[in-house]
Design a protein that fits this description.
The protein is built from seven helices and seven strands. It has 204 residues and is α/β, with parallel strands linked by helices. 42% of the residues lie in helices and 25% in strands.
Length: 204
Amino acid sequence: MAKTSKAWMREHVTDPYVKRAHVEGYRSRAAYKLQQIAERDKLLGPGMTVVDLGAAPGGWTQVAAKAVGPTGRVIAVDILEMAQVPGVTVIRGDFQDEATLHAVERALEGRPVDLVISDMAPNLSGIASVDQARAAGLVELALEFGLTHLKPQGSFLVKTFQGAGYGELVATLRRSFVQLLTRKPDASRSRSNEVYLVGRKLAH
């Protein structure tokens, strides 16, 4: 095992959020990122309609489903196979394909969306500029969906990475929402350059 993967494994095994996720039944430590942001910014509540993009393995989906309760609706989308979460509509497909988008729209049955959450990340090539461009493309894709389907008072939460093009991405989101917040939850590893952007209320 390479040194880097050994170090990662050691960090993973000793990570308090990994341990907590195991105890509390969450599928990934990422569940706590959503939980912490949602609590701080009051993003989730009973009866809401939520679309979760890049949902697998389902940590965010579990948090959203628990928060919206039986009167709410969660639609989870991922290109990877994902085990069912009770009360959730799971759609397997590439969100870049129109067929997947249409499947999400059918599942919504005309309902406007309260919250779009996206933890989508590209397959990494190791070339920073390429990876950054791919990540930005996924944010733009999620944003396009949000602008089309969110309620006027709706919210948008997306993962992105600081680096080339980050400023332009922030500027685009600022134009799209009345309020834009930057979040780095405790559950996000400090050495990671991931950040979460929260858009509140559509600007138009």
